# Entry
Amino acid sequence: MKKTTSINRNLTVGLIAIIVFFILQAVGVLTMGRYTEREVVEVARKNTVAQVDLADLSTMAQQIRRYEKEYFIYVNNPEKRTQYQKEWTGTMEKITALLGRMRANGSSALSADDLSRVGQWTAASEFYAAEMTKVFAEVNARANKMQEEAATAQAAEEQAASTKGTKTKDTTPVLEGTRMLLPDEANDLIKAGKDRFSADLIKGVATTFAQKSEATLALTTVTNQGFNKMIYGVMASVLIGIGIGVYLLISLPKSVTEPIRNLTTLVDALSRGESTKPVASIKVLEFKNLSAAVERMRIAQELMLQRLQKPR
# Structure
């Protein structure tokens, strides 16, 4: 048994479906746009924060290596040696503090892989600092020893001169004592530390900075992918809308034209006095009353014909 349909109901359902379709389409486009925007902004923020820290770390790493070289060059100059040791120590403190902030990752700018690399850089920095501290200790110890030896030699000369009544500067043999490290010797002492510092930290920072730069440049790809998804969503919703329209275009006219055609044929037959079959029940709600009226008219016509055909 066919279910009774209604033109008004079908039209209402169709219009509601179209309205809902447009609402969903708008919500989908807005959501996809916001999602893409959020992804791009968040990636850009993280990369910018990370690149700032990496740039600072790279600059300080280059500075500390320069202070190291200057220290070795002026290792025999107490004033400059002290100056560059101070510069080196201050820069290492800044590097240590920056690495600590990066490991804390308070801005969430670094990924798990980035944090693993920061851990390697911290270990390399600590090893380099420990090795350089040994060099400072060795140089300072030699400097103190040389001062002591110089003071002892001067005292011996003064004592000998006062004893003999003459200066013995040219006659007293010079004893070989402690000497300061040569630049090459000091450089050899720090070789393991500086090599690890350069390989792990300096090169690692440069590589990571390049990766962040590439990721920032790749944001155009992320944006394009977001817009492509949006376009696909719009196309899918358009197809759904077309499907709804086609359904309404087929179902609504059919629900109107078919009952009218059937009733027109029946009424035309009745007008010519032709005997017709009972009016079939029409499943469209709006035509039920009309079909019932036509059926009553058919019955009335049959009864009238039967009375006319009876013998008088």
Remarks:
- The helical segments are 7-73, 78-104, 112-164, 183-189, 191-217, 219-271, 288-309.
- Confidence is low (pLDDT under 50) at residues 167-175.
